[in-house]
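ok new one. same drill as before - C-alpha cells go in, u give me an amino acid for every spot. 362 of them this time. try not to just spam alanines like last time pls lmao
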C-alpha cells in the first residue's frame, strides 16, 4: 500500500514496558489499545538483569485476548538454549495465529552470567556473533518441518510424513543442534526477527538476519545514515534490502494536554538523553515529526516507547495515529492477519522442501 506522499505507508509499533507490573491484565489492556490504533506490533522488553515477568509468557497470555496486532517479546540468546528459544517463539506464533516476532538481545553483565553459573561474561562482539548463530539455527529449525508434514490420518494411524522432517545438523562456535524441531513450522514460516541495530555490535546481525531493525536516533541525518548502512550490508549478505524494515526508536512523553513540542523536540528532532532519544510534546507535533521523517525517506516507520504507558499510548492512538490516518500516511484497518502481512513481508520459502532425509511415515 502507498501513502499520500508516494512512499509506502508508515509502520508504527509501541512498547508495552511497565517496570514492576506483574498483572497480565494491564498488558492486555495496552495491547488492545494499540490494536485499536492499527499498530503493526507491540514489544515487551525482558532481561536477566532485573526482576519481572517473562516477556514471552506475558505475550502468550496477551495473544488470545487480541486478534490482529503483532506480539514481539525480547528473548536473550545468552545463557539460553537455542533449541528451546526457537520452539518457544514458534509456539507463540501458533498461539497468536501468525502474529509473533522475536526481539533478539544479549546478556552482557557478569551478574547475569552468575545466575546460570555456566560461564563468565564475554565481550559484546562475541555475544552478538553467538546471537547471529542462534538466529540462523532458529530459521533452520523452523524450516525443519515442511508445511504439509502433518498427515493426521486416523484411518491409517499416520501422524507425520517423516520424509518432510529434516535434520538441520548445525554446528556453531559455541553449540550444535541436530534437529528437527519439536514444533511444526510456524504459521508465518519464520516469526519476524527484530534487532536493535543502534550499536555497531548488533548492526551486522541485523543486516544479515533481521526482518525489522530498530535504530535509536535523535536526528533525521543519523537515522538515514544507519538505514543506508543497514540496507547496503543486507545487500552484501545477498539479501534484498527491501525485505528489511528500519524503524526509528523514540521515547515519547505526550504529557497531559496538547502543546507545542519543547525546544529541541518536534520538527527540530528529539533530544538525546541517557535513556535514548526523547520526544516531549503533543500528539500533533509528533505526527508532524513522523510524517516529515517518513517523507524524507529517513525510516520505514517508528517504534515508540511511552514514558507513561497508559496515558501516552492513549494519546498516541487517539491523536497522532488519527492524524496520520487522516493524511493517508497510516492504515485505517488491518488488511491481513499476520505480522508479516502488516509489515509487507513475504512468507519465506522452506529451504528443505523436497529434500527427503529421514524417510518413511509414522
Amino acid at each position: 500500500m502507498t501513502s499520500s506522499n508516494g512512499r509506502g505507508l508508515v509502520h508504527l509499533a509501541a512498547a508495552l514496558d511497565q517496570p514492576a507490573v506483574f498483572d497480565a491484565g494491564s498488558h492486555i489492556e495496552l495491547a488492545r489499545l494499540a490494536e485499536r490504533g492499527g499498530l503493526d506490533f507491540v514489544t515487551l522488553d525482558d532481561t536477566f538483569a532485573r526482576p519481572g515477568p517473562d516477556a514471552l509468557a506475558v505475550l502468550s497470555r496477551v495473544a488470545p485476548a487480541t486478534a490482529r496486532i503483532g506480539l514481539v517479546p525480547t528473548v536473550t540468546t545468552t545463557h539460553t538454549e537455542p533449541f528451546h528459544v526457537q520452539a518457544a517463539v514458534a509456539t507463540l506464533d501458533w498461539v497468536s495465529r501468525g502474529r509473533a516476532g522475536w526481539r533478539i538481545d544479549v546478556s552482557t553483565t557478569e551478574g547475569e552470567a552468575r545466575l546460570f553459573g555456566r560461564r563468565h561474561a564475554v565481550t559484546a562482539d562475541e555475544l552478538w556473533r553467538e546471537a547471529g548463530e542462534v538466529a540462523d539455527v532458529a530459521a533452520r529449525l523452523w524450516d525443519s518441518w515442511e508445511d504439509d508434514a502433518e498427515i493426521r490420518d486416523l484411518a491409517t494411524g499416520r501422524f507425520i510424513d517423516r520424509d518432510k522432517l529434516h535434520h538441520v545438523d548445525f554446528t556453531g562456535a559455541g553449540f550444535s543442534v541436530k534437529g528437527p524441531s519439536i514444533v511444526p513450522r510456524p504459521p508465518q514460516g519464520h516469526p519476524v526477527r527484530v534487532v536493535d541495530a543502534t550499536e555497531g555490535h548488533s548492526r551486522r546481525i541485523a543486516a544479515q538476519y533481521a526482518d525489522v531493525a530498530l535504530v535509536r536516533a535523535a536526528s533525521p541525518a543519523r537515522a538515514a545514515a544507519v538505514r543506508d548502512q543497514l540496507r547496503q550490508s543486507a545487500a552484501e549478505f545477498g539479501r534484498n534490502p527491501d525485505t528489511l524494515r528500519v524503524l526509528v526508536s523514540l521515547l515519547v512523553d505526550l504529557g497531559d494536554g496538547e502543546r507545542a513540542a519543547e525546544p529541541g523536540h518536534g520538527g527540530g528532532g528529539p533530544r538525546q538523553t541517557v535513556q535514548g532519544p526523547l520526544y516531549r510534546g503533543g500528539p500533533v507535533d509528533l505526527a508532524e515529526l513522523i510524517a516529515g521523517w517518513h517523507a524524507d525517506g529517513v525510516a520505514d516507520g517508528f517504534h515508540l516507547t511511552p514514558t507513561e504507558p497508559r496515558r501516552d499510548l492513549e494519546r498516541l492512538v487517539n491523536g497522532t495515529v488519527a492524524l496520520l490516518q487522516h493524511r493517508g500516511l497510516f492504515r485505517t484497518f488491518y488488511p491481513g492477519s499476520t505480522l508479516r502481512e502488516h509489515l509487507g513481508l513475504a512468507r519465506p520459502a522452506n529451504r528443505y522442501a523436497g529434500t527427503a532425509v529421514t524417510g518413511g511415515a509414522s
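Residues 124-142 form the longest helix (19 residues). and btw The longest strand covers residues 245-253.
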